[in-house]
Structure formats: structure tokens, C-alpha cells
Write a structure and sequence with these properties.
This protein is of the alpha/beta class. It folds into 2 domains: 129 residues, Rossmann fold (3-Layer(aba) Sandwich); 77 residues, Winged helix-like DNA-binding domain superfamily/Winged helix DNA-binding domain (Arc Repressor Mutant, subunit A, Orthogonal Bundle), CATH 1.10.10. Helix content is 48%, strand content 14%. It has a 5-stranded parallel sheet, sandwiched between helices. The chain has a two-stranded antiparallel ribbon with strand order 4-5. Helix 7 crosses helix 8, helix 7 packs across helix 9 and helix 8 packs across helix 9. The longest helix has 15 residues. The termini are far apart.
């Protein structure tokens, strides 16, 4: 019996920069089983399409959606009305940069991922795949920005985390997106030592993967210094 091929991941693009959006469309469509089911320049046109029945698995939304001759729209404000229409869909904010307060809102309140446009293409493909699986992707630059802000807040209260100084340094490398070998080179540790330290961090924090650890560090407001 002929086996049916798995369906492609349906990707919705919402970005007011035409060249960027069209380039992203061409890059993603058909890559790794992805299919761009629609791309829109405005929040209003995208929301209208979803209301009319457009189905997608993940929406890539620009943070700053400007309207010719009109005010800018915060891409985060588009997530909740779309989520009410498509509760199972995932969201990834694709942005050149955001204020820390909006990063916190995206990650903690809206449960959306954040991808910085300066990151490599391969990272975007990985971010899409993991976001669709239910993980919350946060680019290393955005994660460090959040941790820096959370660290300032945490410094004003009691320390709640029992990580050693070495564990904190390894955690910092994980948040930056470094591999164990790269962390070892930075700290003058063997790769096996870094792996052992990372396992200890997993045990202390109760997480099971690097992506969960980054999320934990952000939400628990760990000060990496």
C-alpha cells in the first residue's frame, strides 16, 4: 500500500516590508516541507483572511506593521484575535529589535517565540520547526536582553537559585546559543565537563532540554551578571 506523504507545515507571513516578505516567501516555500499559505502586508488583511477561513500552523509576524499614510500597528496585538480564531496555531515574532517590555509580553504573556532578523536563515528554519512542535523559540540576542532586565529586578530581591558560579557561566553560554564545545573553549573546560555541568543544571532546574533551560532562565529571572 502506498504511504501518504506527511502534509507540509502551513506558514502565514505578515510583514509590511515587501522585499523582505517576498524574499522570505520564496525561501520558505517548499523548504523542509514548508508551504507558505498566505502573505500579507497589514494586520487587517491577515486577520480578514483568517476570519474567512485561512488555515495555518504557524504565523511569522513582524513586530512593527506600518500602514501607508496611517499609524503603525504592534504585531503583538494581532496574536490574540487570531488565536481566538485558530487556538492551535503557533506564533513567531520576526523582528529587527523590540523593547524589553514588549519582549516580556511576547514570551511570557502571549506565549510567542521571538526571532531576530539578524540571525542566520538556518536558525529561522529551526525556529519554525521547534515552534510548531510547541517549543518557545527566543533568539539568543533577545534572550540576553530579557535576562539582563530580569537580572536587574532579581538583584533587588533575595537570590532564589542555587547555581554555582561555574553553572552560571555554562548557563550563560547556553542562552547565547553556544554548543558544549564552544562553551568549553570559552571557559577552558573539556566538552565532557561542560556536559556534566549542564546535566547538573538540568537536575537543579527540572528541565530536560536546552530550549527549556533558556525559557526557565527567562521566566525565573535568573541574573547571569
Amino acid at each position: 500500500m502506498k504511504q501518504s506523504m506527511p502534509s507540509a507545515i502551513q506558514v502565514l507571513l505578515i510583514d509590511d516590508h515587501t522585499l523582505f516578505r517576498e524574499g522570505l516567501h520564496r525561501m520558505l516555500d517548499g523548504d523542509r516541507g514548508l508551504h507558505v499559505c498566505g502573505d500579507f502586508a497589514t494586520a487587517a488583511s491577515a486577520l480578514k483572511a483568517v476570519r474567512e477561513g485561512l488555515v495555518f500552523d504557524i504565523a511569522l509576524i513582524d513586530y512593527d506593521l506600518s500602514v501607508p499614510g496611517g499609524p503603525s500597528t504592534n504585531g503583538l496585538d494581532l496574536i490574540e484575535p487570531i488565536r481566538r480564531l485558530r487556538p492551535q496555531s503557533r506564533f513567531l515574532i520576526v523582528t529587527g529589535g523590540m523593547k524589553t517590555v514588549e519582549l516580556v509580553r511576547a514570551v511570557q504573556e502571549l506565549n510567542a517565540g521571538v526571532f531576530l532578523k539578524a540571525e542566520p536563515t538556518a536558525e529561522l528554519l529551526l525556529a519554525i520547526e521547534r515552534t510548531v512542535r510547541g517549543e518557545r523559540w527566543v533568539s539568543s540576542g533577545a534572550a540576553l536582553q530579557l535576562l539582563a532586565a530580569n537580572g536587574r529586578e532579581a538583584a533587588q530581591g533575595p537570590q532564589r537559585h542555587a547555581l554555582t558560579s561555574r553553572e552560571m557561566l555554562v548557563l550563560h553560554g547556553v542562552v547565547e546559543g553556544l554548543a558544549n564545545k564552544e562553551i568549553g573553549a570559552r571557559l577552558d573546560l573539556s566538552e565532557s565537563t561542560v556536559k556534566a555541568v549542564l546535566q547538573k543544571i538540568f537536575e537543579k532546574t527540572g528541565v530536560r532540554s536546552r530550549s527549556q533551560l533558556v525559557r526557565y532562565a527567562i521566566e525565573a529571572q535568573i541574573d547571569l551578571g
